[in-house]
Design goal:
By secondary structure, the chain is of the alpha/beta class. It is 39% helix and 14% strand. It is globular, with a radius of gyration of 23 Å.
């Protein structure tokens, strides 16, 4: 967007969706410096203010179609009012009541401490200080709830303006948003379990290897529907030797990828250097990041972690490409997961030289 974000927010805010809006910190570039007025502006844009619900402290706003929205304002400077609204959101008696609240407007994130399973849209204005916070925000929107079939995350970022003095900051924020998007795709992808392709490999109980079953002559892809994990065989894949390296490959790959996509030289060269050889990033930069992050691992284990991280990142991006290049019709909330399986099945022999 360009100009004040409150003028553009309704372009992405659907009043029919259960939404949590995170407005920018007053010290950020995106803020208008008047958080109370920002909330008022959003409420005015949604409809006609009807007052405050006596029982919950929620703002009541009448839409043009007659529907009354229940809006929880967690930005209010009045601690008594804010605590009352927060307590209403945490009310265990209302946890399964979809109509309890329609929109939540908040500044901070983790400290609010409520669990809203009905949230369908997490709308965040401006770059958040940490990717961990964005993961938490995404987590709010992806809770399972009866009848809930989809969820989305929107990050509203200010368009870089060549006329502004802070153009460097604006570009940096855009790069950070791209990094956040890459990490989000990784977080929402299925859990990968990579195995080196060996002649003595066999099927693992609990995994479905497709119509033909496990084929010893090729790299297999197995799916465990109960755990949601994908077992993928890759030729030439380095196997972790130590317990700690194995744990990192199983549990911490997203942390490795988060460090990679937040690495400024990686993002800058990946976006702007047309002469770049991809291996400079996936081997050299990723290798350095892992050495710095896990200095206690020996060289073999560091290389195993690097290969597992690159495989996870590559598979997710290839799967996304297959999904987006399709006709786009009937995309389900499992489209990315389906794309992973399709890519892995289409490539007969996966090799670590990705």
């Amino acid at each position: 967007y360009s100009g004040p974000y409150v003028d553009d927010i309704l372009k992405v805010l659907d009043p029919a969706e259960k939404t949590i809006i995170h407005i920018p910190n007053v010290n950020s570039r995106e803020s208008t410096k008047d958080k109370m007025r920002e909330v008022e502006h959003i409420i005015e844009a949604l409809g006609e203010w009807q007052g405050i619900d006596a029982a919950t402290g929620f703002q009541l706003v009448k839409r043009p179609d007659g529907r009354v929205l229940r809006i929880a304002d967690l930005v209010d400077d009045d601690v008594t009012k804010r605590d009352r609204v927060s307590a209403s959101l945490k009310d265990p008696a209302q946890k399964n009541n979809r109509d309890h609240v329609d929109i939540i407007i908040a500044l901070g994130m983790a400290k609010e401490g409520f669990d809203w399973i009905w949230c369908e849209h997490a709308l965040t204005v401006g770059y958040r200080a940490s990717l961990t916070e964005i993961v938490q925000i995404i987590g709010r929107a992806t809770r399972d709830a009866p009848g809930k079939t989809r969820a989305r995350f929107t990050n509203l970022i200010a368009e870089p303006d060549a006329a502004e003095a802070a153009v460097t900051e604006a570009v940096n924020d855009t790069l950070k948003a791209i990094a956040a998007s890459l990490l989000m795709e990784q977080v929402l992808a299925p859990r990968f379990e990579f195995k080196p392709k060996n002649p003595d490999n066999g099927p693992t109980p609990g995994f479905d290897y497709g119509a033909g079953g496990y084929d010893p002559s090729r790299c297999n892809v197995g799916v465990n529907e109960q755990t949601g994990s994908y077992q993928i065989e890759i030729k030439g894949l380095a196997e972790p030797k130590s317990k700690e390296a194995a744990r990192i490959c199983q549990e911490d790959l997203n942390e490795v990828i988060a460090a990679f996509v937040q690495d400024k030289p990686t993002i800058e060269r990946g976006l702007f250097d047309e002469e770049l050889v991809p291996e400079e990033l996936t081997q050299v930069r990723m290798g350095k990041i892992i050495k710095d992050k896990y200095p206690e691992l020996d060289a073999e284990d560091q290389e195993a972690v690097r290969q597992h991280a690159v495989a996870a990142l590559n598979l997710t991006q290839q799967a996304k490409r297959l999904v987006t290049e399709g006709d786009g019709e009937g995309l389900r909330n499992t489209a990315l997961i389906g794309g992973v399986r399709r890519f892995a099945m289409d490539v007969r022999d996966l090799d670590i030289d990705l």
